[in-house]
Amino acid sequence: MEKTNHMNWEFETITKHTQDILIVVDQNQIVQFITPSFETVLGYRIEELLGRNVFDPVFPEDRDRLIASHREVINLKEPKMDEYRVYHKNGEVKYVESRVMLIPNDPNNLVVVNIRDITLRKSMEAELANRKNRYQVLQNQLKKYSQDLSMVLKLSDLKNRLIKELETVLPEAQPLISIFHRETESFEGDFPIGLLSYLPTLAIGKIQYDNEQIHILLGERKEKAHILTINACSIKESMDLIWFETLIFYTVMVFESLHVIENLINQLESALQNNKRPQWMMRLLFNLSEKQRLELSSDLHDTVLHEQMILYRNLDAILKEYNFEGEIQDQLNGIVKGVSDSIHQIQMTCHELRPPLLRELGLLSSLENLFEYMQVSSTFKINYTTENTEALVLNEEETIGLYRIVQELLNNAGKHSRASNLYFHIENKENNIMLQYSDDGIGFDSEKLTPTYKSIGLSGMRERIKSLGGTIEFDTQPGEGLRVRLELPITR
Q1: Distance between CA atoms of 221 and 158, rounded to whole angstroms?
Q2: pLDDT at res. 454
Q3: CA distance 472 to 461
Q4: Which of 1, 70, 143, 241 has a C-alpha 20 to 30 A away from that of 370?
């Protein structure tokens, strides 16, 4: 008798203090017993459900599924887990998880339902999903923006593209680009009133907070300062701020490039009017391009890549320290993989902008590394030979120029030629370096090789070699592949 009383006391203690809801339901779905935690979790008094249908508080769209599940437990005599929604007494929708078990050998087919509130977990899962989706949106938008910038040729196009991007990604930004004339100390058109006091402290590409607004100096041209202003409230998450800083970095870089290019084009047009195409001008353009590639590669490595690697390490540490289950674990793993892929993509972009150790290794060893990398990810076979190159010494311009031409030939082969075999041969002959290339691809109409042909790839190779004082010849016909012969005098 004492043992029975002790067991009853233990059972009563458990049912009073457990945070889970325990309900005993008969085969007609009528509640026979319920623990006090029912009122704590869902706000109802025990009397409000005792003797009534257990599915009354269940969300209508989930009710039929749960009724069918209850019948399965009785018929199959096997426990069953379910997730569904129920109404709190105050009208709030709660997410719960239940485990339904048939009481063994009970003639009335009573079942025990263990119910746990998982509303917080569901909220965290939804938040993780939203963050993952937001991160992917920002990455894709940034990639598209950077690609579109390559087509921008005018400052007005750059500003319009920037405004469109901000309005798309940050709907509350209300972006405005103001123009300040330094000579007259006046604004052109509309401008934020609060901007006046911050003009002396603005620095190109640096964010300046002004209570409810953010100001950034994009650049200056002809004594005119171009200043972007957005609402500070539009940046809600740290990832939004990182995206915004990267967006501004790209914009400032293109702004400065357009300014430089505009000045150079004016000089070039002046030279062309005199029927001249100075070699130094072409070399200057290519050198500026390489310098910008180097700076962009360095900045990407030191800022965006560094921040992505910190984010990756933090997420990885969280996964190792805490034990997540189910969808949360899968979503976190997906985010970590996405960050890892982003790091790899940025690293590859840095390598393409400025091949690692090109200056230290020299042209021949760098080409070997390039061919090995391309061979892994391409369908064509690369054949590479050299002749009399043991004592070959090239300056930096020649090394970069020849490397870029080989890159363009590989790019053409991967995108257009449908070739199965590529042949590269480099020869050092009487103070000239000879590069011969051929493939067994589809070729194209040789008329496209005329000086008026607008192919960026072919014209770029021709202009680059011309700027270094060399010559290049193309030979191709439809179905006969492409052959290129390049000769470049070596500077001593």
Answers
A1: 14
A2: 43
A3: 8
A4: 143
Summarised one tens digit per residue, pLDDT across range 432-478 is: 999 999 999 988 876 655 443 445 567 778 888 888 889 999 988 88
Beta-carbon contacts of residue 356 (< 8 Å; ≥ 6 apart): none
Q: Is 409 left (phi over 0), alpha (psi -120 to 50) or beta?
A: alpha
Contacting residues for 95 by C-beta, under 8 A, at least 6 apart:
83, 84, 85, 117, 118, 119, 121, 122
Burial class (CB in 10 A: 0-12, 13-18, 19+), 85: middle
* Token digits of residue 452: 């008026």
Token digits of residue 441: 């691809």
Question: Strand pairing partners for 486?
Answer: 435, 472
Q: What is the DSSP string of 373-437?
A: HHHHH-SSEEEEEEES-TT----HHHHHHHHHHHHHHHHHIIIII--SEEEEEEEEETTEEEEEE
Query: Which residues does residue 176 pair with via DSSP β-bridges, in sequence order?
Result: 229
b/e 134-150 (16+ beta carbons within 10 angstroms → b): bbeebbeebeebbeebe
Which positions ≥6 away from 381 have C-beta within 8 Å? 375, 420, 421, 422
Q: Residue 226 region, left (φ>0) first, then alpha (ψ -120 to 50), else beta? A: beta
- Kindly give the parts of the chain with pLDDT less than 50: 1-11, 13-14, 450-454
Retrieve residue 23's tokens: 């309900």
Structure tokens belonging to residue 105 = 């050998």
Question: Which DSSP category does 171 fall into?
Answer: T
Give me the pLDDT at residue 1, please.
Answer: 43
Query: Are the beta carbons of 228 and 163 closer than 8 angstroms?
Result: no
